[in-house]
Design goal:
5 helices, alpha+beta, three-stranded antiparallel β-sheet, single chain
Length: 185
């Protein structure tokens, strides 16, 4: 995947959420203007990849308590120059969950959600903005989830409780989209 592939995915992404539609337009403009959009050194904004991880019955989502940011999130991270943002999302999911990549199942290679948000400064980086491209994946919630050292805690959260862990708008959108999937399931 290269910049053109991400642009193709963004142009194909349909959403009923006005805020997300605005993020998609901003993401397209940014990616078109910045050939190095996948490098974390591009400040104050760069592209990241993450995954909304659901259980097979879509009743739970995998969330982790991020060590540096002290907040609950879905798995994801920096592309570090890798233009294949889907590969980034899958890699980060396997690394942060501690699950063998063979147990991480991509449910669709279409974008699931797009979010643009600020990340506060840490000891390693100044405050900056992420254009986060999210994909929908599944992991068997019966498997042990060992996590890694990037998180204080990781585990399955009931879909109905996810907003108690992270009540931002993007979590709301992904929970709502998952509820819609459950109705089609």
């Amino acid at each position: 995947m290269h910049r053109q592939e991400l642009l193709r995915l963004l142009e194909q992404h349909q959403t009923r959420f006005m805020d997300e539609a605005g993020f998609v337009r901003r993401a397209i403009a940014f990616v078109e203007q910045h050939p190095d959009c996948f490098k974390r050194e591009l400040l104050p904004t760069h592209v990241t990849g993450s995954a909304w991880v659901v259980s097979p019955d879509r009743s739970h989502v995998l969330m982790l308590h991020h060590r540096k940011l002290d907040q609950w999130f879905q798995p994801g991270g920096h592309a570090d120059g890798d233009a294949d943002i889907l590969r980034v999302a899958l890699r980060e999911t396997a690394e942060e969950s501690g699950i063998d990549p063979s147990h991480v199942t991509l449910l669709s290679d279409a974008i699931f959600d797009v979010d643009i948000h600020w990340t506060p400064a840490t000891a390693d980086a100044p405050a900056h903005e992420h254009i986060d491209i999210r994909f929908l994946v599944e992991i068997d919630d019966g498997l042990p989830i060992p996590g890694n050292d990037e998180s204080h805690e990781i585990g399955w959260v009931g879909l109905h409780e996810a907003m108690r862990f992270n009540n931002n708008r993007s979590t709301y959108r992904m929970v709502d989209k998952t509820r819609q999937l459950r109705h089609a399931f």
